[in-house]
Structures are given as C-alpha cells and as structure tokens.
Queue: 3 jobs
Job 1
Amino acid sequence: MATTVLEKPSLLSSTSGSESYRGFCNLLYVILAIGSFRLVLENILKYGLLVEFNWPLRFIKDPTNWPSVLLIILVNIFILIQFWLEVRLSRCSSRMYSFLFQMINLSSILIFPALYINHCQPNPAGAFIAVCSYSIVFLKLVSYTHVNYRCRQDLFEKKHDGIKQTKDCVVYPQNLTLRNLYYFIFAPTLCYQLNFPRSPCIRKNFICRRSAEILIIFSLQYCLSQQWILPILRTLDRPLNQYSILENIERLLRLALPNHFIWLLLFYAYFHSTLNLLAELLCFGDRLFYRDWWNATDLYEFW
C-alpha cells in the first residue's frame, strides 16, 4: 500500500505559513547599532569632540535669548484678558461687545509674537519655542471659550436649573476661576472640560524616571546636533545651487540619519516623557497622548 508523503516547503517560501521573522528583525537592529556606532567613531576621529557643555552659561550671557523669555511671559496678559471677558459674559453684561473683544484677543495671540519677533530679532531657537507656546495657548483658549459658550447657552436656556456645585463636580459658572484656567493651561490637553479625569496621587518614582528621561534625551539631542549635524553643515562653503545634484543628494543622505534620530528622540521626550511628567504633577488622568503612528498605513492615519 502506497504511503502519502506530505510536502514540507522551506520556511521562507510563501506556502510555508510561517510568519515569525523576529530573528531577522533582531539581526537588523544589531546591524543598525553597529553601523551607527561606526559612524559615531568615524565622526569623532575626523572632527574631534565638538560638544560644548557650557551652553547654560552661554544661554544666560547671550542677550538675544532674553527677548524670547519675555515673550513667553507676556502670554499671560492674553490669558488674563480672556478670563476677564469670560467672567463678564457669565454676568450677562455687554455680551456682544465682550464676544467681539474675545475674538480680537484671540487674534492678537497669533499676531503679537510675529510683530515682537520681527522687531526684537531674538535667537531663532528661543523664538521657535515662544511661537509654539503662543500657538498652544491660542488653541487652548479657543477650546476654553467654546466650552464656556456652550455652558452659558445651556444655563440661559434653563437646562441646568437646580444643579449646584458638588464636591466632585464643577458646573458653570463656578469653573470661572484663575486656578481652573491655569490648570487647563498647564494640563497636557488642548480640549477644555469643566471636570477633567484625575489620577488618585502623585508617584515620586514615576516623576524621577520621566525627569531622567527628559534630561538624558535632550542632552543626547544636543550632542547629536553639535557633533554630527553641524560638521556636515559647515562643509557647505557655497550656495546649494552651485553644487551638483549628486553632491546635494550625498549631503542630504548624510543628514538623514541624525535627523531621524533627533526627531524620534524628540517625539519620545515630548509626547511621552514631558507630557506624562506634566500629567503626573497635575494628577491628570487622560494620558493617551499619541497612538501607534508607526503602524500607520496612510498619511491620514499617520497624522
């Protein structure tokens, strides 16, 4: 009687049904680590150690940095104006004019930093941080204004008759306090709520870990930019249009790897370490700051 011999395809064949290639991924990680380490050694041997560790002193002594610090502090003026207008609106006094002033104040948040930077010409890095801060405050105040508007409409339509502030729940207009507003300003969210989800306590070990991550990652980013990117940029001794296409491509490829490292480190340092640190200090409960964008299949899902 003949016996049936089952075929056994190779594991790398499409018919094998094998889907586990973790070992190849580990091998790629090792190759990437070795290649990156070789580039680091080559860079140090070629240019020497270029990292300057006295940047905090240079930041303090550089007069172009202080206008950016002042610009960030001045954002509180717009926050306080918006708060004062919200309080006026809650009392039903000059509603139309107050709403108009709110729109003017929100528009000024976007216009003022541009005019200030154009006039003072501060350090580009500090100016970038200041503009980001103003953009975040603008988005937060838009949400703050919109939510309070909806609550005010509900209140005027008598939808909340008999509802009073309780120990665990804040209702409009009891939320119109500076403490409530500044909690939202510092909270890691752009969407205002009268009652945010809260965590029960502050974990000291968690704060220490996140703080250490922020310090190490930002230091690593600084070293990468000083040691790896600046030497490449310094080789550009003439405009890009005077180089050949192949030379421009070669420089872009040399910048691609450190640029990707810095952006990935920035993502982790800001969206994971910094926002989680803020959330822990403020006992903020909603910590879904990002999704698995690395598994995105299209640009819409990626963003």
Job 2
Amino acid sequence: MLLVDKWFHTINDIPMVCSLYSSVKSIREQYLEEEFLSVAQAAELYHRSRFNSVILPREEWREKTRLIIDAVPASEKEWLRAKLEWSNSPTLQNRLEELLDALEPTTSLFVADKLEFARTVKNTRNYFTHWDSRNKKKAASRANLYFVSETLMYLLAACLLVEIGFTSQKVAELFSRNHRIHNFRWNSDNPVSSKPGQVGESSYFSIRVGTDAEQKE
C-alpha cells in the first residue's frame, strides 16, 4: 500500500486524532492554551484507539467493584457506583506514559523525564479544563507551555508516521536530522528536553541553540 493510501486509511480510522493534529498545524493563530488542549486530547484519543483502555480485565473489574459496593450501606451504593464507573479506565498520565514508552527511541529525542512530562501534561490539562487555582502550581508555566505543547505535537507526528508504515527507529532517525527539531531540542529554554546549557524558564521566544561542542558532550 502506498504512503498516500495509508494516510487516507489513517484519516478514516482515527479521524478525530488527525483533525485535532491538523487543526493545530494549520491554524497557528490559536491561543497557546487552546493549542495545548487540542494536542493533549489528540494524544489521549490516539492511545484509546491503539492501546488497551482498561486497567483490569473487565470481569475482574466488575467483580472487584461489586464487592466494594456490597460492603457499603444501601444509602451509599448509588453514589459509590457512580464514582466507580470510570475506575477501570487509565488516567491521562497512564496513557501518556505508555505512549511515550511505545514511541522509543523517538521519545528520548524530546523528553528527558517521561514520568515528569506525563505528569505535567496531566496537571496542565486538568488546570485548563477545570480552572482550579489549587492546580496552578502543578501546571506548566506560561513560559514552559510552548515547549510542552510542541513536544506533544512532535510525538503526535511520530504516531502518525508510525501509522503509515515507518518504524519508531526510522522516525527517530528522520527527526534527528531535521534542522527545526534540532533547534527546538537544543533551545536552552526548553525544560522538557535534556541537554547541556539548559537555563530553565527565560524569554518566551528565545532561540539560543547549543554549540557543536556542547552537543558532542
């Protein structure tokens, strides 16, 4: 099957993932928060489409919840049943961790700490979705949100390349030769990627790139 045919098959198979990804790529005037929420949703939908979306086997989960519900007073059963309805679904953080592992070695090009990155995406999505000030400190700062969002975009691009037939190893090779990705990874303000000379939060559009000597270390 030709790459173009595979691409159209992918669009038909996971349309919302492709639509969300394309909307961010084609409409660059979006607010950064809106862009982040779109790519986070696309990543979650991709995982739902391609990975196991339950924590326990369904029968085991049903039996477990039945035992828990049976143990509470009758007046609390309906409330507890509603609370447990989605208890067998992975959290966004769980989904991202599994996705990041599956995309190796591409993931390591962009993400120094997979657990921390997944946690940051989850906390930031929850903050923007529920707008609870108690979660603000856990969310990505304004200065870092660009890098978190763009990292998700590159990882989604990797997912789509895998869909049309590239191996993750080949995707990593292609990405490592891309000049724009090179600059993004070595931007000294990028808190997600791991490299010498990182300075953390600084000017939002800083484009300082590591020297050749630094990159060989």
Job 3
Amino acid sequence: MACRTGLRFRLDLIGAMRRRDGDRKADSENRRKEACDHDEIPPSTPAGPKCGRIPHSFHRENPMRAKLMLTLAAIAAAMVFPPLGNAVRAEGDAALTGVVSSEAEGKMEGVVVTAHRPGAIVQVSVTTDAEGRYSFPRDRLQPGVYALSIRAVGYDIDSPAKAAVANGKAATADIKLKTTKNLAGQLTNAEWMMSIPGTEEQKAGLLNCVGCHTLERVVRSTHDSDEWTHVISRMLGYGAVSQPIKPQPMLDRSRAGTPEQYRKLADYLATINLSAVDHWPYELKTLPRPKGRDTRAIVTQYDVVRPTSEPHDVLVDKEGKVWYTDFG
C-alpha cells in the first residue's frame, strides 16, 4: 500500500509540474501578447520580433525542471516495472527450474512448488511466474535428489515428480497437473469460512476450533444438534495448547460451561456438516492463486522434531540454526 501511495504521489507530482509549466507558459504568452498590444516591451529586450519570444530565464529553468521530472519519472517507472536483472541472475544461478502446466489452463502462474530431500528437515518452496516457470536459487538447494510437490487448489500432480540437483548445472523438471477429485481436502480454513453459509456472528463461533484442528473436521462430521452441544462443551474443556493427538483437559472443567448453553451454535453447525445430507449443499469457494509480484517469494520450512511440538518465539542464529520455545 505504501508503494502504491508513493507511486501515486510521484505521478501526481509529475502531472502537477507539467500543468504548472503549461500554466506558466500560457501566462507568459498572455503577458507578451499584452506587451505587444500595448507596446510595453522593456527596453532591455533583445532585438527581434516583439511577440512570441521566450524569456531567457525560462530557457535556463526548463532544463532543470525537465531533469527533475525525468528523475521522478524514472523512480516511478522503476516502481512499476522492476528491473529484469534479478530475474536473469535467478535463471543463471538456478539449481532447479521447470514449467508447471495443465490441460485446463496451459502454463500456470501462482503454483507453489516445494522441493524436499528425503531425510532432510528443511523444505523450500517457490512460486511459478506468468510463464508457468519456477526457479530454485542455487544457494537454497544442496546437491541431491528432491521430491517435488505442489500447492494449487483444484489440482493434483499428474504423476510423482523428482529432480536430481548437481553442482554447476541447473536441473530441469517440468510438472504436469490434473484436476483434483478431492477439492474439499485442499481447502484452507479461510476457504471453508468463505464457503459455508451463515452470518458473521455464526461463523465467529468457529474461531475457537481452528486453534486445535482444521474446519474440515467440523464440516465432515455427522453430529446433529444434540450431539454438537456435548461436543462443543467437551472441546472447550481442553487447554489452549491441546491437539487431537495430545488432548490436555483443563483442571477446572466448569469453565467449559454446560452443553445446553451452546444450543444456538450447535443448531448452526448441524446445518453446515453432513448430519442430514451426503454432500455439502453449498459451493466450495477458493482463493485466487498469487500473481505478479506476489509470486516472487522463497519460503523455507523446517520440520519440528516431535509432532506435538508447538513452536513459539522462533529465532534463527547467524549459523542458520533455528531456536524456539516449545509449548507442546
């Protein structure tokens, strides 16, 4: 937002300066015409036609203003059209590159491609550009064989993808995608919130759920309203750091309340799950894939040692080691 505001300010400034130059020129012409009409040209004016001459001071000022305008225009252009040098260097220094495509879309922009070496605790993700190309910088992947996975809601990899990365030469692995048969399994919590019907007040009741598990668990359930009252009461009786594989009940269970006080929320949850139907009676909505500048990101993900770990206050030291407190 700051970049857009800065760009708009610069473009407005350039436009204002041009308008000001035009106004000054028009005023100067009007004054010269008035001087001609009234024969009031100052005696110091050089010989020549009395009308239509441009004062020497304007010639001296204009190049300076033009230089400033070009500088501002260059700044604005640099913000709108980023230099290609980084992209060229990225291609030249790539350890692994390729194109992601599908029959439905052809070359696909905004597909997240993740490279993971078996046995390693680190995996790196990049995103395809407008030409469907992804590129892993050489300093992000060590030599070895990597399994490739993707994130593009609505699609799956057509066949398992692997790539062998070596020193000195970029590996290439094109990836073909196919339409998924399990869209619900790919939705994020945000997309489930977009998809399910209900008011903001009704959906707000689900915010307590996502601290321990995804909303897919809620919408795939078959609990009716009566069952939901007990489920909600039991869920609220767990501590904030609980997980499905490691529930931690609160010492004071009375803080969770009684089942019947959650009747309103229970009635709502029974309308968005599979308690009365065998498929969801609402459209599954998805967020758009990244585009343009949003695709220029590299994400490094570290696996935690224990599945019940809950990292907090993560820090990376100068040697690249990750330190964190564990609430799990």
